[in-house]
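Quick one, T. Sequence first:
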Amino acid sequence: MSDRADRTLEALGLDRAPREEPLLYPGAWPAESGLLVGDRLLPLDEHAAYEGRTPVLAIGSNACPAQLRHKMAEFAITSPVPMVKARVTGIGVGVSAHVSLVGYVSASPVHAPGAVRELFVTWFDERQLAVVDLSEKAYDRAWLPGSAVHVAPEAGPSLRGVYVYVNRNGVLRDGTGAPRRHPGERALLTELLGGSAELRRLFGRTPEEFCARARADRSLCARGTRLFLEEGLVTVSGLERFVRAQQTGSPGTGSSLSPPLR
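Structure tokens:
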């Protein structure tokens, strides 16, 4: 088998997109940094230049190469996407308080001081960023300065900040009232359906039924999103101030750092 074939998403076990198989959400993430080029994930040159690109922290399926490939293919975009593994302090992975039209309940970032996770920073050019923005209809893209989140890539200096998608509906809470963690789609839907008779009435008793009923049913997804709120399952992510700061043009944390030019 050639080196080219070895780096295909299929050969790497990264070729299945949650948009097509919702219960796979958030999808398979790479083991290391890479350059997504069409159907291949190539090694990332440590001297790669990111000028003109925007750093966006991937919390859920945007760290899945197959999901990114699916989004870009809709608009016939074939330009490479650098995916850089990073050690991130200050952000947790919560659960969006909305039901997505593609059939799953997605992840959303939450403020988590001191929490450390390995996540991916995706570096999008202008056209790629527009595509991802369009795909994140329930989210606002907000700039988190280095004073709020510390992002240390595998190679190179720490970033002075990063963009992240913050859900407009808030996030789901756990039994203590704190944001709940996203445990993977099947486990999440099993927990949610087990805790709500009305959710079972609307979406069925199993994760498979939930995904099948939710998929492309705008009215049902909206009803499910309202139900989360009605049943007192929703709390704030703690990142709303960064969305407001961006909308008003004022710094959210007293930092003078501003988003990179695009």
